[in-house]
Design goal:
This protein is mainly alpha-helical and about 400 residues long. About 55% of the residues lie in helices and about 0% in strands. It has one domain (about 15-360, about 380-405): Up-down Bundle (Methane Monooxygenase Hydroxylase, Chain G, domain 1), CATH 1.20.58. It is built from 17 helices and four strands. It has a two-stranded parallel sheet. Strand 2 and strand 3 (about 145-150) form a beta hairpin. Helix 7 (about 155-170) packs antiparallel against helix 9 (about 190-215). The two termini are about 40 Å apart. Residues about 1-10, about 365-370 and about 385-390 have low confidence and may be disordered.
Length: about 400
């Protein structure tokens, strides 16, 4: 990651490469590695067998037998990202193997120490985040370009669908990310024609993101997502199932608390909000800003650079250009529609799925085994997102404040 030194001489070049962004893949890690050096074979062996080890309740015993490996043999960003992906998935499986009622208070040293070291090297927290789950967790399955995940958890095809549809949303955002760069430069250069074109491209990209997000309905079973997958995305901050947090043995004697994976950790929407000057409520803003700590530092720096740019909204307002105003409002409207689409999906996959799971559990035979592999619905985060936010009040508030960002004629 390059520092921000010298940005005063070159106010806002916003070159994507400065922020580890790809022209083709945006925030996605381009062509992630799928294997670590042989030294890390014990990690990879467990990681590739996670669904079976978790559902048979043998992951914890396997982790206890795992050697403590030094991270000094890891070379370069790609190896570090794969190591973080692998260790984060093993950690989530270890924590939630027995469901909400069988959590542990300590992450063993042989897992905690290397996970902490890799996290420190990348500037990421030692927990599964969007940067692992989606951005670094994809590979080409065949020459036709069909995609697959690198590491998995229980949930089968629904988990695979959940990850890959989210990945397609990130991929659909790429023209919009490029449009941000064009828009910022156009404002600086007072080039209204380029700005108008950039805003049209941004609105189109956000529309394509909504289309990609709707594919969730085709590939993810709500019952599997709610009862099996969701718990493995849960963190140990603002989670009643782990109120004290987690001790990372060999790192700290005091427990630490981290939020679980959340769509709010995707840099894309933060970048769009900053460009369009969308202002959310104090509570929503506080949560969103906390989620920025779960992004790779260069991606976070990209959002901060947009924030420092001259206000696009003020520029459009002062231009008095009806076409520019309409193009700006089209972007805001597309973003609000995307957030409405997200609310629809959360309703189906959490609220409706929770009601169905409860009804099903009510008719189940007593004495069944608890835990995710038995499909016992998790209750600790019923009204919250896996990131710890009060999910519906947050999503509706953010959608509504987005709508308020339009410019009045």
């Amino acid at each position: 990651m390059e520092t921000d030194e010298g940005t005063e001489e070159t106010p806002l070049p916003l070159a994507l490469t400065r922020f580890q962004l790809s022209e083709e893949y945006g925030f996605l890690l381009p062509d992630p590695l799928t294997e670590l050096p042989a030294h890390y074979g014990p990690w990879m062996e467990i990681a590739h067998d996670l669904p079976r080890l978790i559902t048979s309740r043998r992951l914890r015993s396997q982790v206890h037998q795992m050697p403590q490996l030094s991270t000094r043999h890891l070379r370069g960003r790609e190896e570090l990202h794969l190591a973080h992906l692998v260790l984060s998935f093993i950690t989530m499986g270890y924590l939630w193997q027995e469901g909400e009622e069988g959590t542990v208070k300590v992450l063993p040293r042989n897992l905690a120490v290397p996970f902490w070291e890799v996290s420190q090297a990348l500037g990421l927290p030692p927990i599964l985040s969007h940067a692992d789950f989606v951005l670094a967790n994809w590979r080409r399955k065949d020459p036709k370009g069909n995609l697959d995940t690198i590491i998995s958890l229980p949930g089968g095809e629904s988990l695979r669908g959940f990850i890959l549809v989210t990945l397609l949303v990130e991929k659909a955002a790429v023209p919009g990310i490029k449009a941000i760069v064009q828009a910022v430069r156009a404002v600086l250069q007072r080039d209204e024609e380029t700005l108008h074109k950039a805003l049209q491209e941004l609105a189109e990209a956000i529309g394509d993101m909504s289309k990609a997000l709707r594919r969730m309905h085709d590939y993810v079973d709500p019952a599997v997502f709610y009862a099996v997958i969701r718990i493995f995305l849960s963190g140990w901050k603002d989670n009643p199932a782990m109120p004290a947090g987690l001790i990372y043995e060999g790192v700290s004697d005091e427990p630490m608390a981290y939020s679980g994976g959340s769509a709010a950790q995707s840099t894309v929407l933060h970048a769009f909000d900053e460009l369009l000057g969308i202002r959310h409520s104090e509570e929503s803003t506080a949560f969103l800003h906390r989620m920025r700590g779960y992004m790779p530092p260069p991606h976070r720096a990209f959002v901060e650079e947009i924030q420092r740019a001259p206000s696009l909204k003020q520029h459009v307002l002062s231009s008095g250009d009806a076409q520019l105003c309409a193009a700006f409002n089209q972007c805001v409207s597309a973003l609000a529609d995307f957030r409405s689409c997200h609310i629809t999906i959360v309703t189906k996959y959490i609220t409706v799925a929770a009601a169905k799971a409860k009804a099903k559990a009510g008719g189940a035979e007593p004495g069944g085994r608890a835990g995710p592999s038995a499909g016992k619905p998790p209750s600790a985060l019923e009204a919250k997102g896996t990131g710890g936010s009060h999910i519906f009040s947050f999503l509706k508030s953010v959608r509504d404040t987005t709508r308020e960002g339009t410019i009045s004629a």
